[in-house]
Prior knowledge:
By secondary structure, this protein is an alpha+beta fold. About 40% of the residues lie in helices and about 25% in strands.
Amino acid sequence: MSTKDQRVLIAGGGPVGLLCAWLLARRGIAVRLFDENEGLQTDQRAATTHPATLDLLQEDGLAEDMARVGLVAPVFQFWDRPSGELVAQFDHAVLAADTRHPYVVQCEQFKTAKLLRERLAALPHAEITFGHAAVDVRQTGARVELDVRGPQGITTHVGAYLIGADGGRSTVRKQCDIAFEGFTWPERFVVLSTPYDFEAGRGYCYRSYFADPGAWCNCFKVSADGPPGLWRTVFPTEPGESDADILSDAGVQARLNKFFPAPQPYPVVHRNLYVTHQRVAARFRYGRVLLAGDAAHVNNPIGGMGLNGGIQDAVNLVDKLARIVQGGESERLLDLYDLQRRTVAIEFVQEQSIANKKRLEAADPEQRQRNLDELRATAADAARARAFLLRTAMIASQRRAERIALEDA
Ligand SMILES: Cc1cc2nc3c(=O)[nH]c(=O)nc-3n(C[C@H](O)[C@H](O)[C@H](O)COP(=O)(O)OP(=O)(O)OC[C@H]3O[C@@H](n4cnc5c(N)ncnc54)[C@H](O)[C@@H]3O)c2cc1C
């Protein structure tokens, strides 16, 4: 096969597509990536990058660069909103023997994408094309064909494999008729960013979770354009609330004041509304087409696991593609990718993110009490705290994936 036939096509230049492109090109494999946007997105979504993910981003000092442009957050807290009590605090230091990064890095995903884009620019066999949308996919024997719509109309591109990293509404996934199984939450999630300093003003750490009957809040800090940084608060909306009411000045201030009463209005610099789903693709491999990131799985953001899962997909997939393309190993490795990553998406990310939400929003007084008592008891017991952190830090899911062998696929 010619180099062109061996190249890997990628649909989607979010953080997952860019990471796949960079890791493949670093190994000498030609890649061609298409993104429908005109450039990188200035995306306010993900920030939290967990220890297990940082451990995978060692090449070329990427994890260190993310910490440099982001914030290091070793602890996180659970608070009870009605009583104002600090219920539990967890310190990643207890994972010192389990990870090289016993902390979380809060690095906004547009910064991670920018770091990857800069690295890709130095690699000759990585072609990145913005303003081009993947519209159709065909597979014929030893190659895959991708139709892409750009300013000049539709063009067809040929490769050995196609990675669909084109986000939750993935055209690649739809073109391959792969079901996206799961459900959509009835409430939406509103993200409000403010320069108000919740640490100095209220003693909250950089990642603080608030339980409240029928509601909840995540409050965390990002470095934004540099000191003093921004605090992001995430809340559920009420059923039936209109977008205009949610995003109005009055709506925004009422929401913030319910959780964090203040004499002055909060300055609010971003207000974004998200529909949130819990869905996993029925398969991550369809012949020469592989799904990764949000194209393969989506979940609510409580616990910050969506992009982490996508990065873990990318590292896992690139390792296997390189072994096939360069090492002549069996394509069955791609079934192993499917099994490893799909298993942990279901058993860990879906399960944990749903449990995180239910724990914070529990309205029944006895259930609430049990949840808070459980958190207190877990934080107070070193062995239980470590087991809890192994899951939240996504180390347990990585270990689970590694235990799944080719014979299981
Ligand atoms: C409020 C919120 C907070 C979050 N916080 C966290 C967090 O702290 N930690 C965490 O791990 N995750 C978090 N997430 C989840 C995280 O944002 C996503 O998991 C992440 O964006 C997935 O990256 P991706 O590259 O797979 O997809 P995307 O970021 O969605 O990128 C997809 C790319 O594909 C392009 N595209 C789409 N269709 C086409 C097409 N047909 N052809 C070509 N290109 C196409 C798009 O332009 C886009 O650039 C959060 C999500 C939300 C909503």
